[in-house]
Amino acid sequence: MSDWTIVGDIATRTVAGRPVTIRKPAASTLDEAIRAWEQDERARLARSMRQLGDVVDGALAKAARRART
Question: Domain range holding 43?
């Protein structure tokens, strides 16, 4: 959480060139909100990497099939 700038009930940070702003929800702390966002972001990145891996695997398999024919 050291990458976050926290002012009052708002935390900001830049991720991949885009600003991210989190406001403290009424039912939790700002730390919990930041941790939840970071967990969601890790899951989103992992999902994106899996999808990219599937595309690359498909392209390599297609190239291998073409090379055999």
Answer: 5-68
Q: Which pLDDT tens digit goes with each residue over 28-44? A: 899 999 999 999 999 99
- E strand segments, the chain: 5-7, 10-15, 18-23
Structural domain count of the chain: 1
Report yes or no: 67 and 48 within 8 Å, Cβ to Cβ.
no
Q: What CA–CA distance (Å, rounded) separates 48 from 28?
A: 29
- Residue 5 burial (CB < 10 Å; 0-12/13-18/19+)? exposed
**How confident is the model at residue 26, as a pLDDT?**
86
User: Which phi and psi angles does 20 have, rounded to 5°?
Assistant: -120, 130
Structure tokens at 36: 């939840």
pLDDT digits (tens, 9 = 90+) for 49-69: 999 999 999 999 999 999 997
